[in-house]
Specification:
By secondary structure, the protein is of the alpha+beta class. It contains eleven helices and 35 strands. The strands form seven sheets. Strands 2-14-17-18-19-20-21-22 form an eight-stranded parallel sheet. Strands 3, 6, 7, 9, 10 and 12 form a six-stranded antiparallel sheet that branches. It has a six-stranded antiparallel sheet with strand order 26-29-30-35-32-33, covered by helices on one side. α5 packs across α6 and α10 packs parallel to α11. The chain is globular and about 85 Å long. The two termini are about 45 Å apart.
């Protein structure tokens, strides 16, 4: 949409609501002496789902794809001969996949490498759309191996880019007992699309498994941990919660492929990997190499939440597979294992170290509890079958853990018959928190800024669990994280903040996307094998989260909440800890608006206010790897004249004013 067309569309939107689109001077009154509802610490959070290669190939720093040969095609990602640099004598050796399911059901496949001559037998791994390597960085290589025949095997591991070796390490494998062999190296160059090669020499037969390569520079330098730059982007948001592991990933296409948290804990080599449900979900973005190694499991999710100061919000299967796919359900009389998973998870997170699941948590390295306060039952389910299962789960959870807040589902849409049914039923059942989702065009977000103004205050609290403005249409591969979408979300979020007595949690979705491996757009953070950047939507989320405040302050235009009059949207908060008034205002119009903020109250204020602005003249503007901060916060100061702050709000801008109270 061109700028002129966007202006006409917005003008039509507001004029259709009986609002003026050409006001030039506006007075907003901030009732600074009347703090209202408490803003929860969980108000602004993040939602992680393993979509768009967000886990394997993304936040999980493992660089080897199909490291344990457990894909449906066990050699996917691997090749025997990669270039003319390596011997093409096919008599030098061979590789077979051995199925040992009777011996090890969770990790049944190993690769058997036979070397027949004195020449090296070479296999290579392509990584996740290539292997990202940084010059002078340290890397840890490891492999599990068992020598089946021969005295010993020499293994040279190399990282190659454009025909040049940029890192190498070697180990000697001996003995039939399975052992983990490790070596480290320092990279001599940077490459976004390197490949790894394993050179086996020494006649004999060697079984290998869990071929792994990690940078040493992981988040908090944990071996086998998270990619540090991606986690830093999350930590910088100071989120109040993190919802995990999804999303539709929880449900599975079938119940057999649902997310089962108990299979994701323990030693990484003992975790049962599985196909990712987004592998073939979208015909326009097939990803046959998208699997879940569960190197990022529930222990790591809890640890991540603790690291970034967020409250954990795990979501569990309620015995219903995705209703958009198979719609398979577990019968009510077969629901006990699902319910027990929820009870055991709470014990895993919070139980003492002498409890069965608390002991496992302690054994993994975390004796202290994770302080779990919330648990989600189902993701995006709907209908009578969901309500039946929700009742069973909630009764069991509340009976044993009455203080745990249960998050329920209002379905996939923010209105309509399914939504109305779920909302009414959950209100009758006195649900704790209801999860509502919104994927719609920017105009919907502008129009719905007042969505919660008239919600029944006696009903459940609201979790705005998934929202993102769609520039083209929901599920369209052409969606962009453009400035108009981000601006509309900021307008919508002022309404969430204004209604903080009802809305206690909110998060954008999805969180991450690999530039070459995505299935869904738009997304909050984009990354490739070496770099990452936040979208304009990211900076909107970050500005709300890092400028949250503790209590709502009314901000009025003509004695009404500011939710579209003269194309303005606003909310305000008092921060009792920093003694600041925080005003957030969106000018959605295409002309600058001279605005006077009047602080109504008995306080005295600092001579200047801090001003933070997100703005771009082009509604289609986006951040990119080439211009990662084209749209990013700009800070300045503006005078405070007694109890008035006068500013010119740039067209299509989001502005925050922080006014210190003396």
């Amino acid at each position: 949409m061109k700028t002129t067309a966007m202006a006409l569309a917005l003008s039509a939107l507001f004029l259709s609501a009986g609002l003026s689109a050409d006001a030039q001077s506006t007075v907003l009154k901030v009732q600074a002496g009347q703090p209202k509802a408490e803003i929860q610490s969980t108000m602004w959070g993040i939602f992680f789902e393993d979509i768009n290669f967000a886990a394997d190939g993304g936040i999980y720093a493992e660089l080897i794809k199909n490291r344990s040969f457990e894909f449906s095609d066990p050699l996917m990602g691997w090749k025997q001969y990669e270039s003319d640099r390596f011997s093409r004598n096919k008599q030098s050796g061979s590789i077979l996949i051995i199925n040992r399911v009777q011996e090890n059901a969770t990790n049944p496949h190993v690769a058997r490498v036979s070397v027949n001559t004195d020449k090296a037998f070479v296999i290579s791994n392509e990584g996740f759309r290539g292997i990202g390597i940084k010059k002078d960085a340290q890397y840890d290589f490891s492999i599990w191996a068992s020598q089946q025949e021969g005295s010993e095997s020499k293994l040279l591991f190399e990282v190659n880019a454009q025909g040049k070796v940029i890192g190498q390490a070697s180990v000697t494998i001996s003995g039939k007992a399975w052992k983990k062999y490790t070596a480290s190296f320092k990279a001599t160059d940077t490459a976004a699309k390197a490949q790894a090669t394993l050179h086996f020499t020494g006649k004999g037969v060697t079984d290998i498994d869990m071929v792994s390569l990690f940078p040493q520079d992981t988040w908090k330098q944990r071996p086998g941990g998270f990619r540090s730059d991606l986690v830093q982007l999350l930590a910088d948001m100071k989120p109040g919660f993190i919802r995990f592991p999804g999303g539709c990933i929880v449900e599975g296409f079938h119940l057999s492929t649902r997310y089962q948290w108990k299979k994701t804990i323990g030693a990484p080599e003992e975790r049962e990997s599985m196909i990712n449900r987004w592998n073939t979900e979208f015909k326009h973005r097939l990803a046959p190499d998208y699997y879940q190694s569960f190197g990022v499991g529930f222990y790591e999710y809890f640890q991540l939440a603790e690291d970034i100061g967020a409250s954990p919000l795990p979501i569990l299967s309620c015995g219903m597979a995705c209703q958009f796919n198979s719609a398979e359900v577990a019968p009510l009389d077969a629901l006990d294992p699902y319910v027990q998973d929820a009870l055991d998870l709470i014990e895993f997170a919070n139980g003492p170290i002498d409890s069965p699941w608390g002991k496992i948590r302690a054994t993994m390295g975390h004796p202290a509890p994770f302080n779990l306060k919330f648990i989600g039952v189902g993701n995006e389910q709907w209908g009578e079958q969901y309500i039946e299962r929700y009742k069973i789960f909630t009764a069991a959870i509340k009976s044993k853990y009455p203080d745990i807040k249960v998050v329920s589902s209002a379905g996939p849409f923010p209105e309509g018959e399914l939504f109305a049914y779920a909302s009414n039923e959950l209100k009758t059942l006195h649900a704790d928190i209801v999860d509502e989702h919104y994927y719609n065009n920017p105009q919907w977000f502008f129009k719905n800024a007042g969505r919660y103004d008239n919600y029944d205050r006696s009903g459940p609290k609201i979790f705005a669990g998934e929202f993102a403005a769609q520039s083209v249409g929901t599920t369209s591969p052409e969606n962009k994280n453009n400035w108009l979408c981000a601006l509309s979300e900021a307008a919508f979020m002022t309404g969430l903040e204004r209604n903080a007595d009802m809305v206690t949690m909110a998060s954008y979705a999805p969180l991450f996307a690999h530039a070459e491996g995505w299935q869904w757009t738009p997304d909050l953070i984009w990354f490739d094998n070496l770099n990452a950047y936040g979208t304009p939507n990211y900076y909107v989320q970050k500005l709300f989260s890092t400028n949250k405040g503790t209590n709502v302050l009314p901000v009025l235009l003509n004695n009404q909440p500011v939710e579209g009059q003269q194309e303005l949207y606003a909310s305000a908060a008092w921060d009792k800890n920093t003694k600041e008034i925080i005003v957030k205002v969106v000018n959605a119009g295409t002309t600058a608006t001279k605005t006077e903020f009047v602080l109504e109250g008995s306080g005295k204020y600092a001579a200047t206010a801090k001003k933070i602005t997100l703005v771009n003249a082009d509604p289609n503007a986006v951040n990119s790897f080439e211009s990662p901060k084209l749209i990013a916060p700009q800070e300045s100061t503006t005078p405070v004249a007694g109890k008035k702050v006068s500013v010119s709000l740039a067209p299509q801008s989001f502005t925050i004013l922080k006014i210190q109270v003396k």
